[in-house]
Amino acid sequence: MMDAEGSFSNSPISEKFRTSDYLSNGKDYGLYGIVGTAIVAILIPVLLSAMLLGKKKGKQRGIPVEVGGEPGYAMRNGRMDELIEVPWKGATTMAALFEQSCKKHLQQQFLGTRRIISKETVTATDGRKFEKLHLGDYEWQTYGQVFDRACNFASGLMKLGHNEDTRAAIFSETRAEWMIAFQGCFRQSITVVTIYSSLGEDALIHSLNETQVSTLICDSKQLKKLAAISSRLATLKNVIFFEDEGSDIDSSLSGNMSKWTVSSFSAVEKLGKRSPAPPSLPSKNGIAVIMYTSGSTGLPKGVMITHGNIVATTAAVMTVIPKLGSNDVYLAYLPLAHVFELAAESVILSAGCAIGYGSALTLTDTSNKIKKGTKGDAAALKPTLMTAVPAILDRIREAVLKKVDEKGGFAKNLFNIVYKRRLAAIEGSWFGAWGLEKMLWDVLLFKEVRAILGGHIRFMLCGGAPLSGDSQRFINICMGAPVGQGYGLTETCAGASFTEWDDMTVGRVGPPLPCGYIKLVPWEEGGYLTSDKPMPRGEIVVGGFSITAGYFNNPEKTDEVYKVDEKGIRWFYTGDIGQFHPDGCLEVIDRKKDIVKLQHGEYISLGKVEAALMQSSYVDNIMVYADLFHSYCVALLVPSRQALERWAQEAGINYTNFSELCDKTETINEVQQSISKVGKAAKLDKFEIPARIKLVPDAWTPESGLVTAALKIKREQIKTKFKDELKKLYE
């Protein structure tokens, strides 16, 4: 949900993003061109498209294939006859891949970080305080320098008494030192436990104790949290903290951490540089990472990811991104503890690209922590590649459209006409989509919109959750970039399917990545069969080189969802329901555990309904609830504060605080009408549209335990917290 400043509260991915973060105040973004020029610009593309209109030729992207294991309908990538396992010969582990890439790109820029020039605290009109940063330009380390630092850090770990039989954990936000520590551990075959920086206290203790971590690498700001739980950490011996510029270490913490050896990251590097240790490199089947997911139920599970898994996904994704090479610049700001970002950065380093580190709070010129007059990360870096989760792309779209609505008149009409022309071109004519028409509108209308993300984005990777078709089209048109939408899980090391750059369809997640197969297995109970027409449907099962080794210390759960067939191929049963389009592309249409049977026998897919209702401008988050004793569903809905307060102002609604506004009957009726309209437009049945709703004023955040770090709702936790409210909705 968005707070009074229009910002997301406490999210590790879209943490305190403001809707206005994507727009520089006072700019018109090309909407006020000269009237005559605009009219000519409209006519020329229309005439050109009419003369050159031609249908895009169909392309077979996935090929049916016979595989072992449980019977089903299987598909492989249409461009490869055999599965890809490595990006090049000899790169069978992350340690080998990293070393070879560093030596190949020795003098090229690799990791970039912005120095904090100054900090100041400002007070908002409601009394809340915000920290503002003045950041400098990116300062770079080459591939050769990073390799040396990783080797020094690895040797320093050995000097501290760490060895390959013990594990190290990284508990930090994304930054250059995260990657250096990560690669350093692999130089000594050390398994890395990754933990979200936002993980709660109990989950953190569980993760560290279960994996018997002996060395913890963290941000300096995490030391206070560690000190508070020191008595409950059984195996920890060493704590290594990243020095944060301008942050002092609280001397009062030393007592609670006296049983540990506490060292700064730079001190460990210096220790290793003075006493270099020979590397002890891992095998491809060795466990590289135990990645703790912020799962939707109970304590997090540790997924065991091998070196071979990461390398296979890396090799596969490298074939998907067009013209990937050392001229590309990647903006890194999503959590490296999430498999999506980890896989993305592995691809980038393999290709010899530059990685500039930023944060969700400093991404754009008007981001929440950027001091006025200071460039945001995107403007300073000018990236060509970046990843995003749907929540961020949805907010970019909403912010630009809001700005267009505010301008009104000719500016709004011009934008709408151009947008429709470009939309028609993308969906009907290859020339119109990416030819002269695109260049005209890029110059006249979209140039300033693209400046939000630096102006040079040529390809975006999107994952973590389904991306709406509207938001995908918006990025295609206004940002001028294809969106590669991926589907995968931690258990598949992110590698399952990925849309190809020239696929202009929406709502699909592409063909299988060339490192594995995707098979649909019939689910008769839910009515999804591979014999269904016009497309085969069933549970999505992923097999191949990216399938991970299972759950740490949990053989029962591992045996439940992982299977090895008679040919030795490892498969993971996702619990998601999919269908294959005729061209071999996958569409995720449902999830087994989200399907509920109503009183009169109708089945309702909670996830499908939630995804549809999220298109309402009033909805920031939603959980649909249904049980078999009723013939209708209900919903808990976190409203968009900005949208709701704007409506209240226009409607003349008086209220003293946001909670009061959410409880008003007229507010509930307004939101109810909106989601009903959206639901009907999405062709939901009457029983699928919530008959009653409860507006929840407070955000659902990872810190609250109600959503995962990837911002997916934790259904059971929400049901428990709001059990009384759900009961009242059925009274």
Question: How would you describe this structure to a colleague?
Answer:
The chain is of the alpha/beta class and 731 residues long. It has 4 domains: 1-60 and 389-455, no CATH class; 62-83 and 487-592, Roll (Luciferase, domain 3), CATH 2.30.38.10; 94-357, Rossmann fold (3-Layer(aba) Sandwich); 598-729, ANL, C-terminal domain (GMP Synthetase, Chain A, domain 3), CATH 3.30.300. Helix content is 33%, strand content 21%. The strands form 5 sheets. An 8-stranded mixed sheet has the order 4-3-13-12-14-15-16-17. Strands 9-8-7-5-6-10-11-20 form an 8-stranded mixed sheet, with helices on both faces. Strands 1, 2, 18, 19, 21, 22 and 23 form a 7-stranded antiparallel sheet that branches. α6 links the parallel β7 and β8. α1 (35-52) packs parallel to α12 (409-428), α1 (35-52) crosses α14 and α11 (390-407) crosses α15 (469-479). Mean pLDDT is 86; it is low at 1-56 and 429-433. Keywords: Membrane, Transmembrane, Transmembrane helix. This is AMP-binding domain-containing protein. One of its GO terms (molecular function) is long-chain fatty acid-CoA ligase activity. It comes from Cephalotus follicularis. The chain crosses the membrane at residues 29-53.
Q: Can you give keywords for this protein?
A:
Rossmann fold; eight-stranded mixed beta sheet; alpha/beta; 22 helices; Luciferase, domain 3
Describe the SSE topology.
Layout (H helix, E strand, L loop, with lengths): L34 H18 L9 E3 L8 E5 L16 H11 L4 E15 L5 E14 H17 L7 E5 L4 H11 L5 E4 L5 H10 L2 E7 L3 H6 L9 E5 L18 E4 H10 L12 E6 L9 E5 H12 L10 E4 L6 H12 L3 E4 L19 H5 L3 E4 L1 H18 L1 H20 L1 H5 L1 H15 L8 E4 L6 H11 L3 E5 L9 E2 L17 E6 L15 E8 L5 E2 L3 H7 E3 L5 E11 L5 E6 L3 E3 L5 E3 H8 L5 E7 L8 E6 L1 H11 L6 H6 L1 H17 L10 E4 L19 H7 L1 H7 L2
Parallel strand pairs: 3-13, 5-6, 5-7, 6-10, 7-8, 8-9, 12-13, 12-14, 14-15, 15-16, 27-28
Antiparallel strand pairs: 1-2, 2-18, 3-4, 10-11, 11-20, 16-17, 18-19, 19-22, 21-22, 22-23, 24-25, 26-27
GO molecular function, one term: long-chain fatty acid-CoA ligase activity
Keywords: Membrane, Transmembrane, Transmembrane helix
Protein name: AMP-binding domain-containing protein
